[in-house]
Amino acid sequence: MTRYRRWPARVVVFLLAGGSIAALLADLYRIAPMGRVFWFVSVPAMAVLAIVAALPRIDPDLRARIRVGAVAGVLGVLGYDVARIPFALAGQRVFAPIESYGILIADSSASSGLTSTLGWLYHLSNGVTFGIAYLAIAARRRWPLGVLWALLLETVAVLSPFATRYDLAGHLVPIAIAYLAHVFYGYPLGRLGRELDGAESALRRFGRHTVSVTLIVTAGVIVGWQRPWHVPPTDREAARLSHDGTPAAIVRSDRFEPEWLRVRAGGCVLIDNRSGRTYPTSAGVLPARTAGTLCLERPGVYRIRLGARPYSGGFVYVDATRP
Predict the structure, then answer these.
(1) I need a surface site. Which of 155, 184, 218, 268 has the fewest CB within 10 A?
(2) How many CB atoms are closer than 10 A to CB 248?
């Protein structure tokens, strides 16, 4: 197959790789709910990529781009997240959006081990598919292009409704952290993409199922970490307090349990403050040892702080599109 005849297939792979992020983009631009697009577009697109990477009749070069791109994406996600850990320990809520993805995918009114698992798996799928998309069009190029690709992805996020929804617009510190972390994401893409043939040979030396094993093990680590089967007693009790579309959280010290709640614009959340302290918040006052409601009119993600501690309070996702 000539170089130019390969390009249509590469473009198709690039578009299929965009299936994962399509779910979030559809929700951001209010085209369709994230969960619906994820299950009916993202999952099938990723399944087709897996089939193409496994079929022996497919052009070997295209298969190599998908396989190496997937592994590079896993390494990139690892670098991206590890680079953000120091900032998370310092109190920056850099991982908060990931938790919200799972709530949207599950169409849930509150966070749980299941929604956290789905959010982190979706985060992984984005990293993997962005890696495949990059290698589909830029394999064997100079490695700095991988970093430029990663920085372009962050630029798109900053210029999209994502920045407004997650309150990034005008906040230079979280934006700078995101750009820095994307350098660590793009570097593995650039290095492995530059040495595509050598990387593919190395994967084959480890075995024909190296890529699938890598993805399964990584997903398994996420599942074991987030424990979707586990429901804390406080979360169970908060679920019993929820009624008529009003999700509930319990405050025993200075944190929401569960940490995330989701309502429509103009809806309210019930906060059962069982601590001995009254908390003034941006959405209203929560008196000590009293259950009260906080109502929010506009769509977006609201950080409800209970005191000065970085991880106090919780989040309310106000969804304009939720029925």
Answers:
(1) 155
(2) 23
